[in-house]
TrEMBL record:
It comes from Alitibacter langaaensis DSM 22999. The lineage of its organism: Bacteria, Pseudomonadati, Pseudomonadota, Gammaproteobacteria, Pasteurellales. This is 5-methyltetrahydropteroyltriglutamate--homocysteine methyltransferase. Zn(2+) 1 binds at residues 642, 644, 666, 727. Belongs to the vitamin-B12 independent methionine synthase family. InterPro entries: Cbl-indep_Met_Synth_N, Cobalamin-indep_Met_synthase, Met_Synth_C/arc, UROD/MetE-like_sf. Binds 2 Zn(2+) ions per subunit. The gene is metE. Its cofactor is Zn(2+). Keywords: Amino-acid biosynthesis, Metal-binding, Methionine biosynthesis, Methyltransferase, Repeat, Transferase, Zinc. Catalyzes the transfer of a methyl group from 5-methyltetrahydrofolate to homocysteine resulting in methionine formation. It catalyses: 5-methyltetrahydropteroyltri-L-glutamate + L-homocysteine = tetrahydropteroyltri-L-glutamate + L-methionine. Zn(2+) binds at residues 642, 644, 666, 727. Pfam families: Meth_synt_1, Meth_synt_2.
Length: 755
């Protein structure tokens, strides 16, 4: 019999129950006892759904109050010593302090979990990190599941990935050297789980999908030889990419089974067809929201079943953590867009899909004939849908002139024409786009959405806000102004709502970190722009001032990166469609007299593929899509782009290849060190390195900004240097914003006088 399992489940609940409870707990409005009770209830619901859908095990240990890597830090005793906490007796309160910081200590740093939008807490390793096993997190969940009569399969991230994801702190050393000390602690945790009688333990080593150094790869065999001495079976789970390059040694690794992500890297299967142990085939996409083609999956799985027999398991490709929870609650979507609704599957539906596959594999297709037929009908409707496939969009993309993504003249010609009308002083000052999103703004938007205020009232409220933002900037004497983006709830959602081909859910939340969730738009069809999206706002803002107003758009790569993307055409094509749609907006802005236009691309860097070998291709189509977004603009129109904190060292040629006239970047926290790459690679165009950190309300001193600006002036010609904050100001309050910008402008004027 083919077995069924999932690699992990979302934790926050169908309607973000955990988030709201946690936040109330943090505000002392909810007791610890109640929070524990809710957590238990949510776990139970997750397990029940797995059990009801023929899962042979329920996955435990994946539930967490904040982050599974933080849990592992606690379980291995590797919490940062700077907090002074005892990992063996950590209270829930202390656990949250690790994640959120306290009066004395800043929080453990977060970073992105592989190429997802989930953030884990980065382990801080020092030369003398002492590990100590505390398996209670896993053991308790095992017992809880068993008490419900279920068969638990605990999951934890393996020792090599755990070490790999951490950072060295303090005196220089190599965290790999900690492996010998860490291993006995893992053994102890696994032994504790085995003592609970668990048959299988899932150990995740997603780092195998990265380019790991040989030393790390060589460690797998001895490490797993030791771990497999435990009295439970080990399923080694890989995901987010192919591990075919390691097939030879993976096949002889002393574990009892191997999980492959066959959605992300179906081709890797060929390398494992002669595997002699349990093969867990990850065939249901844990990273996207589309219904699977069950017939195709069965055709793919049937020969595997013939080969592996009992040893074949089916599973989600990775943890379902990255999917929204339940499609069934999207009643509005179902009503407004029933077709799209019928093409989607969220976490609960994906488990149901696995159940259908299992039944078909074990009992024959006839057992689920009706379901398969319905599945096929839905997929066929999707393939032929007129809402998705718009001939004009495809034709336009196919028939772009060869140099559509090239400016008419080279930068030196353009910048001369731009400077001629812009008439800006040296070191022009500007901001990144947003100004404080006050409570007032958010209330107005909420009320408008609820129908409590009219469209006209909402528009007026936003216009008032824009006027305020313009006046403040004039008072501050900034050179290139922005309208402040009050009308935007979110830099991607705003455009998604105005572009064709996008849809939105009501509860399609995905955990980003801790209690924070994001609700990505769904790009389901060919993308086009039916009407101008930003022109009247920018035009209105421009009408209020004689100074130059900068238009503000979100770029194609960022829109793509922060959405759920259709899987029936290449991502590159979707991205270029968005680029082309944005170019319509750019030209309309230009026509309306907005001739400085910023196209934000904070997500270009984070979208880089996990393996370096795949970078070039990605950079090629993303830069093309970006360049398409300004296709056709005149030489004297100035295109800006903005990127957040980014290590550009390895991709600077591609960044230069975007050929934006001005790029603003986040540099203040790196003491301008990030500029080095620009200098080293002779970045040719204008640059605005951020001169203060916008994440904090703290007002920088003039000396600090002067120091940064002088550093920048040392390496960037004064004619090409702009002055701006690190990023948008929407999360700041007004009072600090004004003070911060005042210091920035004052220092700039002082330095200007010297030039
Ligand atoms: N224009 C956006 C803003 O100022 C840019 C945000 C970002 O870079 N993430 O808010
Ligand atoms: Zn930014």
């Amino acid at each position: 019999m083919t077995k069924l399992h999932v690699l992990g489940f979302p934790r926050v609940g169908a309607k973000r129950e955990l988030k709201f409870a946690q936040e109330r707990y943090w505000r002392n409005e909810f007791s610890e006892q109640d929070l524990l009770k809710l957590a238990k209830f949510l776990r139970e619901k997750n397990w029940q759904h797995q059990a009801e859908n023929q899962a042979d095990f329920v996955t435990v240990g994946d539930f967490t109050f904040y982050d599974h890597i933080l849990d592992l830090q606690v379980a291995t005793g590797a919490i940062p010593a700077r907090f002074g906490f005892d990992s063996q007796n950590l209270t829930l309160n202390q656990y949250f302090q690790l994640a959120r910081g306290n009066q004395q200590q800043f929080a453990i740093e977060m970073t992105k979990w592989f190429d997802t939008n989930y953030h884990y807490l980065v382990p801080e390793f020092t030369q003398d990190t002492k590990f100590k096993a505390n398996p209670s997190h896993y053991v308790n969940q095992v017992r809880e599941a068993k008490a419900l009569g279920l068969t638990p399969k605990p999951v934890l991230v393996g020792p090599l990935t755990f070490l790999w994801l951490g950072k060295e702190k303090g005196a220089a050393f190599d965290r790999f050297s900690l492996l010998d000390r860490l291993l006995p602690v893992y053994q102890e945790i696994l032994t504790a789980l085995a003592a609970e009688g668990v048959e299988w333990i899932q150990i995740d080593e997603p780092a195998l999908a990265l380019d790991l150094p040989q030393q790390w790869l060589d460690a797998f065999a001895p490490v797993y030889a030791q771990l497999s001495q435990v009295n439970s079976k080990i399923l080694l789970a890989t995901y987010f990419g192919s591990v075919a390059a390691h097939a030879d040694w993976l096949k002889t690794l002393s574990v009892d089974g191997l999980h492959l992500d066959l959605v992300r890297a179906p081709e890797q299967l060929a390398a494992f067809e002669d595997y002699q142990k349990v093969l867990s085939a990850g065939v249901i996409d844990g990273r996207n929201i589309w219904r699977a083609d069950l017939n195709a999956q069965l055709a793919y799985l049937a020969p595997l079943k013939a080969k592996f027999g009992e040893r074949l398991w089916i599973a989600s490709s990775c943890s379902l953590l990255h999917c929204p929870f339940d499609l069934a609650v999207e009643t509005q979507l179902k009503e407004q867009n029933p077709d799209l609704y019928s093409w989607l599957a969220f976490t609960l539906q994906k488990v149901e899909e696995l159940a259908v596959l299992k039944q078909a594999l074990n009992q024959g297709k006839e057992a689920v004939e009706n379901i398969l037929a319905e599945n096929q009908a839905a997929l066929q409707a999707r393939a032929n849908s007129q809402v998705i496939h718009k001939a004009e969009v495809a034709e336009r993309l196919a028939n772009l002139p060869a140099d559509a993504d090239k400016r008419k003249s080279p930068f030196n010609v353009r910048i001369a024409k731009q400077n001629a009308w812009l008439n800006l002083p040296l070191l022009p000052t500007t901001t990144i786009g947003s100004f404080p999103q006050t409570l007032q703004i958010r209330h107005a938007r909420a009320n408008f959405r609820k129908g409590e205020i009219s469209f006209a009232d909402y528009e007026n409220a936003m216009k008032k806000e824009i006027e305020l933002v313009v006046r403040k900037q004039e008072e501050l004497d900034l050179d290139v102004l922005v309208h402040g983006e009050p009308e935007r709830n979110d830099m991607v959602e705003y455009f998604g709502e105005l572009l064709d081909g996008f849809a939105f859910t009501k509860f399609g939340w995905v955990q980003s970190y801790g209690s924070r969730c994001v609700k990505p738009p769904i790009i389901f069809g060919d993308v086009s722009r039916p009407q101008p999206m930003t022109v009247r706002w920018s035009q209105y803002a421009q009408s209020l001032t004689k100074r130059v107003m900068k238009g503000m758009l979100t770029g194609p790569v960022t829109i793509l990166q922060w959405s759920f993307v259709r899987n029936d055409i290449p991502r590159a094509t979707v991205c270029k469609q968005i680029g082309v749609a944005l170019s319509d907006e750019v030209l309309d802005l230009e026509k309306a007299g907005i001739k400085v236009i910023q196209i934000d691309e904070p997500a270009i860097r984070e979208g880089l593929p996990l393996k370096r070998a795949d970078w070039d291709e990605y950079l090629q189509w993303t830069s093309e899509a970006f360049r398409l977004s300004y296709m056709g603009v005149a030489d004297d129109t100035q295109i800006h782009t903005h990127m957040c904190y980014s290590e550009f060292n390895d991709i600077l040629p591609a960044i230069a290849g975007l050929d934006a006239d001005v790029i603003t970047i986040e540099t203040s926290r790196s003491d301008m060190d990030l500029l080095d790459a620009f200098v080293k690679f002779n970045y040719p165009n204008d640059i605005g390195p951020g001169v203060y950190d916008i994440h904090s309300p703290r007002v920088p001193t003039a000396a600090e900004i002067e120091h940064l600006l002088r550093k920048a002036l040392n390496v960037i010609p004064k004619e090409r240097l702009w002055v701006n904050p690190d990023c948008g100001l929407k999360t700041r309050g007004w009072s600090e914003t004004v003070e911060q910008l005042k210091v920035m402008v004052d220092v700039t004027k002082k330095l200007r006088a010297e030039l």
